[in-house]
Amino acid sequence: MENNTKQNAEDNTIAILAYITIIGWIIALVMNNDKKSDLGGFHIRESLGIMLVSFAVMIVAFIFAFIPFLGSLITVILWLAIMAMWIMGLINAINKEKKTLPVIGDFFQKTFASIGK
């Protein structure tokens, strides 16, 4: 029983680390290679998806920076959406839940299926 509790705590640690910067994501990926945590792998894929979307938004923000008002508005809306997804993912990891993110979570799980397994 104690070993199972320890394992669940380690799985939860992997899931939470996946959302704490790119370094945390790499640490979570390395830890998960040894443990093969289902919860950890799920959140590693979700976090990777959020990071890639935020990189894409950074490129879009650079392009829209040249449009005075509309560019700023679009950029702020996109960054708020990414922040909301990150917070939802982190809360799900803390609560030990495997809920996909709205709109794009299923896509992340299918696209990155080989990562974290």
Written description of the protein model:
By secondary structure, the protein is mostly helical. It has one domain. It is built from five helices and no strands. It has helices spanning about 1-15, 20-35, 40-65, 70-95, 105-110. Helix 1 (about 1-15) runs antiparallel to helix 2 (about 20-35). The radius of gyration is 16 Å and the shape is elongated. It starts with a helix and ends in a 6-residue tail after the last helix. About 25% of the residues are buried.
Quick recap:
By secondary structure, this protein is an all-alpha fold. The chain is built from five helices and no strands. It is elongated, with a radius of gyration of 16 Å.
CA radius of gyration: 16 Å
Number of domains: 1
Spans where pLDDT lies below 50 across 5 or more residues: none
Number of DSSP helical runs: 5
Q: What portion of residues belong to β-strands?
A: under 5%
Secondary-structure class: mainly alpha
Main beta-sheet annotation:
none
The shape, in one word, is elongated
Number of strands: 0
Mean pLDDT: 87
Q: Topology of this protein?
A:
Elements: H1 2-17, H2 21-35, H3 38-64, H4 68-94, H5 105-111
Name some characteristics of this structure.
single chain; 117 residues; mainly alpha
